[in-house]
UniProtKB/TrEMBL annotation:
The keyword Membrane applies. The keyword Transmembrane helix applies. It comes from Brevundimonas subvibrioides (strain ATCC 15264 / DSM 4735 / LMG 14903 / NBRC 16000 / CB 81) (Caulobacter subvibrioides). The lineage of its organism: Bacteria, Pseudomonadati, Pseudomonadota, Alphaproteobacteria, Caulobacterales. This is Uncharacterized protein. The chain crosses the membrane at residues 6-26, 33-51, 57-78. It comes from the Bacteria. Keywords: Membrane, Transmembrane, Transmembrane helix.
Amino acid sequence: MLDTLIAIGVSLFAGGLVFCMALLLLGAHKVPLHFGYGAILGGVIACSFVFGPRDRAGLMIVGGLIVVWVLGTTGLYLSRDQIVLHPHEHHSAVAGYAPRKTD
């Protein structure tokens, strides 16, 4: 029972971290969110399977990651039209600084 709870927690935590990385890719390089999420989490799953332990707990974590990967990528793909990031409007680097007017 404890192995199952740990696998669920680790899978959700890893999915959240990968989602944050995918948001950074979207903001910095305009990579669609479902592509970034799917590619990064797919790499995490592959590395976990190859380099991770092959015991019951390790395979449960990989299975949980696969479920989070499929559901997350599908959800992000289906909601791709509603995801819009607006660029930040930075007018100056220093607060209260007004640029000089040149005539």
